[in-house]
Amino acid sequence: MNIILLGPPGAGKGTQATLLVDSRGMVQLSTGDMLRAAVKAGSPTGVKAKAVMDAGQLVSDEIVSGIIGEALDGLAPETGVIFDGYPRTAAQAESLDEILSTRGRTLHHVIELEVDEDALVERITGRFTCANCGEGYHDTFKQPKAEGVCDKCGSTDFKRRPDDNEETVRTRMTEYRAKTAPILPIYEARGIVSRVDGMADMADVSTAIAAVLDGK
Ligand code: AMP
Question: Taking residues 125-152, what's their average pLDDT?
């Protein structure tokens, strides 16, 4: 099964994708994560993408669609894929159709996480992760149990994304509204869009997504 998780920054796409990876053995393809890895590695793609990402704008369609195609080529055909943060423009949605069909894959569901944008700014600007294992935390909603120590791996090293500041978050939301939300009708016309309340508790969001995937 191949699915898209769609929603503005901070809607919980990454969190829900991780839960699906754990519960269903699907693979998460996050263009944001892959781009951050490219920036960290200092690859030509990373060098090109860094300033655009730091400004909260969108990296070129060619770059992200190229990354997605390559990532899919590394997967067994029967592996289910969660597209997280891709596609983000009409051109990417078109590329994804071709990328999937040339690999014999079909898109089964597009799940839109519906959220309140003002609450998202607080969600995003407070988030941080363990620099070692990637476990997610939040200044207000989820501090580590022992201050400064990761619950999962014990590391004392944490990091924040450079683009998780208020000004950049507002730009990312504007980009979402202008370029990403308009692709929903493409999938609505195919009857594969489901909407889930992204402001609910993480576990409830996850249950709602499971119900969509299981056809309940
Ligand atoms: P994310 O982790 O999904 O919030 O993405 C972080 C940043 O990476 C975005 O603000 C964009 O600059 C870039 N990015 C990630 N995915 C895409 C995409 N599909 N198209 C264009 N830019 C992207």
Answer: 95
